[in-house]
Amino acid sequence: MAGSDWRQLRDERMAEPGAEEAYQAARLAFELGKAVREMREQRGWTQSQLAETAGMTQPAVARFEAGGTVPTIPVLERLARALEAKLVVQLTPGSSAA
């Protein structure tokens, strides 16, 4: 019964204006944070080490990795540079014609 209550609540919230856009922004923030965390861990770095190299604070790195913030392009560039990674931002055509 609790599962159906959750699905009903989720469906109601997702029907609200702007909910889909907010969900997609949160998903993107989470995916970016996960990618940075994985790269940091591959290097054997702590969040503090990444923060120092990127010119950020450790709490800012922690929030980013947790998906708690939608980063700006300059922040992504700093993280990419610190991780010796290439930042690629692109727009691709959608599947539906408007």
Structure description:
Residues 36-90 form the HTH cro/C1-type domain. Keywords: DNA-binding. This is HTH cro/C1-type domain-containing protein. GO terms for molecular function: DNA binding; DNA-binding transcription factor activity. This protein has 98 residues and is mainly α. The protein has a domain at 20-82: 434 Repressor (Amino-terminal Domain), CATH 1.10.260. Helices cover 65% and strands 0% of the residues. It has helices at 2-14, 19-43, 47-54, 58-65, 73-82. The longest helix has 25 residues, at 19-43. The protein is globular and about 45 Å long. The N and C termini lie far apart (40 Å).
State the gist of this model.
It holds the Pfam family HTH_3. The model has no long low-confidence stretch (mean pLDDT 90). The chain has helices at 2-14, 19-43, 47-54, 58-65, 73-82.
Mean pLDDT, rounded to whole units?
90
Supply the CATH superfamily name of the domain at 20-82: lambda repressor-like DNA-binding domains
Residue stretches low in confidence (pLDDT < 50, at least 5 long) are none
The profile of the biggest β sheet is: none
By CATH reckoning, the class of the domain at 20-82 would read: Mainly Alpha
Strand content: under 5%
Number of strands: 0
Radius of gyration over all CA atoms, rounded: 17 Å
Discrete helix count = 5
CATH architecture call of the domain at 20-82: Orthogonal Bundle
For the termini, the CA-CA separation is 40 Å
CATH topology of the domain at 20-82: 434 Repressor (Amino-terminal Domain)
Structural class: mainly alpha
The level of helicity is: 55-70%
Shape, per Cα inertia axes: globular
The sequence of SSEs as H and E is: HHHHH
Protein name: HTH cro/C1-type domain-containing protein
Keywords: DNA-binding
GO molecular function: DNA binding; DNA-binding transcription factor activity
Domain HTH cro/C1-type: 36-90
